[in-house]
Amino acid sequence: MKDAHPCRVPRVSPLRPGRISALLLTFSVAALSLTGCRPHDFPQYQPNQREYAYVTNGGSNTVTVLDVINVRLDRELPVGENPVAVAASPTRNEVYVVNAGGSSGMGSVSVINAENNSVAAVIQVQRQPVSIDLDAAGEVAYVANSGSNTISVVDLRSRRQIAAIGAGEEPVEARVTPDGKTLVVPNRGGNSVSLVDPAMRGVRAYFEGCPGAADAVILPDSSKAFVACAGGHQVMAIALAHPEAHPAQPDRLEALLDVGRAPVHLALKPDGGEVFVSNSLSNSISEVYATTDDVAGAYMMGDYPVRGLVSADNSLLYVGNLHSQEVTVYSIVDGKRISFIHVGDGPSAMALSSAGHLLFVVDARSADVAVVRTASHSLFTMLPAGRGPNAIAVKAFRLP
Fold it and tell me: Is the pLDDT of residue 77 over 90?
């Protein structure tokens, strides 16, 4: 069995030249954190349990693999050129990394076998892919190719692209609804949103008037989507088609919601009740009631908020403030900020461990990952990443 004791200084692999200061910071922070470490704050793992966090490093063409159970660096794994997004399979012990490629070349998806953390396959897609989403069964992936204005449909079992669906100009996401019947595609260059029918492999509806369309979330019942219009100050609410209703309901624009300036990211509560909008140029978040499309208010965060993450129990919102070294903790129940967590420079992407006891914060400018204890909202340790880290996903599983 691995050494899975959580209250020890994590082992860190040798760092690159020039990172000695980061190594010293790791151990000094860990020493301070361990003085208050309580074993009951951490889950008890079985011998066959594994859990890893995967961080894409666009500047070094690698993925940093972090051992969540032992809170340490596992390895740095070479992938394709300019990895920019990552997703974990809900059904297989696999992780999928989107490689944007060079300025003129085609992109790809690297398939990582999570059991041994090696690259098992490479799937060719189209030009400049930037995001990936998976269907609920983990059988099909949808990759937004911003350089070719298409969505790649990837069969994950056969490991190949089986279709390319035309979208709008410069699609940045292709979010699949939980029922698998719709892809919501924000087109940043086209200032628009496309709704794609995966079965028909074509666009069934198109909505203009969303400048710099950037991010989408979908309600758990697949009834509605929200899209952030990052080039302005609004969020688009779209009611999704319900052909089984009597009478049948088509796709329709429900509302344009006024929020803060440059809304770049949306965080949906797991219960679907509220959407939290990161307004990067207003240094705030806006709270939107999902069923009524009411904007409850705006709340000041840190400097340039770019990412929100809601805890599994719907109680807390973590906000990464890119132009700072802080993550803001916002109490959803109380409607106020309750803490600031000091992390590395440029917190951007975030992910929670499967048990929710650790928050991993990717620091874009200091090229490291802050590990935060959610029980105390305190920094536990810092782990190194590659150059230009930009995205993270967590995969937990049991070996046979």
Answer: yes
Poorest-pLDDT segment among 18-22, 52-56, 71-75, 225-229: 18-22
Q: What are phi and psi of 20, to 5 degrees?
A: -60, -40
Three-state DSSP state, 47: coil
385 close to 57: Cβ distance less than 8 angstroms: yes
DSSP, residue by residue, 255-295: EEEE-SSSEEEEEE-TTSSEEEEEETTTTEEEEEETTTTEE
Q: Beta strands of 240-377 (E only): which ranges?
A: 252-258, 263-268, 274-279, 284-289, 294-300, 305-310, 316-321, 326-331, 336-342, 347-352, 358-363, 368-373
Closest alpha carbon to 266 in 305, 315, 227, 322: 227
The length of the chain in residues reads 400
Query: Percent of the chain at pLDDT above 90?
Result: 86
Q: pTM here?
A: 0.91
Is residue 345 within 8 A of residue 366, CB to CB? The reply is yes
- Close Cβ partners of 255 (under 8 Å, ≥ 6 residues apart): 236, 237, 293
| Separation between Cα atoms, residue 141 and residue 19, nearest integer Å | 37
Helix or strand holding residue 30 (H, E)? helix 20-34
- What is the predicted pLDDT for the residue at 7? 55
Return the SS3 of 198: coil
Beta bridge partners of 5: none
CA dist 199 and 19 (Å) reads 50
